[in-house]
Amino acid sequence: MSGAMEPPRGLKALHRSWVSLLVGVAFSAGLAYLAVRTVRWSEVLQAFRQVEYRYLVLAALGVAVMHGLRALRIVVILHPVRRIRLWPAFCYTSIGFLAILVVPFRIGELARPLLLAEHEDVPFATGLAVVAVERCLDGLVFSGLIALLTHWLPLPGWAASLGYLMGVGYLIFLALLIWAWLRRESCVPLITRIGQWLRPTTGHVIGEAFGRFLDGLAFLPDSRALWGTVLLSIVLWLTGICVNYVSFFALGLGLSVMAAAVLQILITVGVLLPTVPGALGSFQFFTVMGLELFGVGGALALTYAIVVHAMVLIANVLLGLVCSFTLRATWWSRLWALAAAQGNADTTEGRGP
Q1: Can you tell me the distance from the alpha carbon of 19 to that of 53, in angstroms, rounded to the nearest whole number?
Q2: 202 contacts 209 by C-beta, under 8 angstroms
Q3: Nearest 5 degrees, angle CA 216-CA 222-CA 227?
Q4: Degrees (nearest 5) of the Cα angle 38, 43, 46?
Q5: Could you tell me which residues come within 8 angstroms of residue 21 by beta carbon, excluding any fewer than 6 positions away?
Q6: DSSP 3-state helix, strand, coil percentages of the chain (rounded to 5)?
Q7: Do residues 132 and 177 touch, judged by C-beta distance below 8 A?
Q8: pLDDT tens-digit series, residues 32-91
Q9: pTM listed for this prediction
Q10: What angle do the packed helices 223-248 and 298-327 form, to 10 degrees?
Q11: What is the DSSP string of 182-221?
């Protein structure tokens, strides 16, 4: 009887996945329409002729620097578990961002844990812990940036509220991670029992995976490593702001570094929304919104949004492809298989590294 139920359950899960993709497409299309609805395309074409692409090349180098900072952060986080060289970590980061751009359902987030498992013998669950720590640190810096800027910059009211709410959420999440690591001896058996209660035949696997996940938090007691990752996260965000600032010169926008910071905040909000891979539509909408806050609107704002988005995409794709070739990594087949089986636990069970 249970075997007869599996196909409908798998089809239902597959249906949910494709519905989520269609929702993302609709969301992206709606935001793209809002970004272009009042723009004259003849003025956009004229603005394209004025673009100074040398500044975009410099900004693209800034994107590569950001990947380097992320790679160094991975090295610091994993140092107690495995010593990883900087160049391979840079490659894992670049490939991970390429995967996020091309693989639907956010499955691209799993690229780095997969690569760490295959090339560095880091357990997959430990790699997931690295991603969780990175997201937590980035979220805290993002929230702090909003808190610093909200009092004297023209941020929308909803952005300030979102920042404070996210900050509280990330602090709670970080506290839970620290608590789980400190109480490892009691947490792992508890998770194992819960897993066995949910799935009697494979529950022990959940407990083992949770233990490996906690291995990825082993850097937390080292104050130098912890504050090092915090500092790297701050420098990473400042570099992103510098990329925006340098990109202003490509279209002759006389905007300040503060404007670049506001733009970074709004673009980050757009990337968090459920859109198509690559944040097409949301990037343009929130970039135009940010520039309008500083008096830049219409064709000039849309042109900036298009060329900068294209620069970011091209830089990430080229870096990801070069690193894939360097490592001879065939990550895409596994990620696409995961994307096809998204939401179907029975299908994906046992396929992890």
Answers
A1: 39
A2: no
A3: 95
A4: 155
A5: 104, 105, 276
A6: 80, 0, 20
A7: yes
A8: 778 888 888 888 888 888 899 999 999 999 999 999 999 999 999 999 989 999 999 999
A9: 0.83
A10: 130
A11: HTHHHHHHHHHHHHHHH-TTTHHHHHHHHHHHHHTTTTTT
Give the chain's count of helices (H) and strands (E): 15, 0
Tokens of 32: 């793209």
Contact predicate 332/100, CB 8 Å: no
Q: How confident is the model at residue 177 (pLDDT cuts 50, 70, 90)?
A: confident
* Four-residue CA torsion sign, 112, 118, 121, 125: positive
DSSP 8-state assignment for residue 103:
S
DSSP state of 156: -
Q: Is 104 left (phi over 0), alpha (psi -120 to 50) or beta?
A: beta
8-state DSSP, 273:
S
Q: Answer yes or no: are the C-beta atoms of 173 and 136 closer than 8 Å.
A: yes
Sign of CA dihedral 126, 131, 20, 159: positive
Do residues 250 and 52 lie in contact, with contact meaning Cβ atoms separated by under 8 Å?
yes
- Residue position matching structure tokens 């994307």: 339
